[in-house]
Amino acid sequence: MRSRKPSHPGTVLLEDVMKPLGITITQAARDLGISRKTLSEIVNGRCGLSPEIAVRIGKATQTSPQSWLAMQTKLDLWNAMQKEPKDVIEFKTSSAVNE
Question: Which of 69, 74, 88, 93 is a Cys-bridge partner for 6, taking CB atoms 3.0 to 4.6 Å apart?
Fold first, then answer.
């Protein structure tokens, strides 16, 4: 398990793309073709990135949508691992399965 929480892709978008370019949330939302509210929730880490939004960000930034989704997946998995279930029993191999 990773010890450091991965960055939210919305934070990366805000800090590494929008701020350096001087783009406001309103302008970025318009350029991405999404609502200002949706983008605000993403950049503030209140909601995750959907594949559709990843495609839009990828197109706007000339980067791969897969890289944006990978960030979201790493974060989602890290969050899930923090609440790792204790009631799971490991599967046992059986001779019937190996036949």
Answer: 74
- Number of Cβ within 10 Å of residue 36's Cβ equals 14
Strand spans (E) along the chain: none
Confidence of residue 99 (pLDDT cuts 50, 70, 90): low
Chain center to CA of 9: 5
Amino acid in the structure at residue 13: L
Instruction: Provide the whole-model pTM.
Output: 0.84
pLDDT at 58: 98
Could you say which DSSP state residue 38 is in?
A: H
Percent of the chain at pLDDT above 90? 86
Amino acid identity of residue 36, one-letter, is: R
Distance CA 46, CA 36 (A): 14
Nearest-angstrom CA–CA distance, 5 and 20: 24
How many Cα neighbours within 13 Å face the side chain of 34? Answer: 21
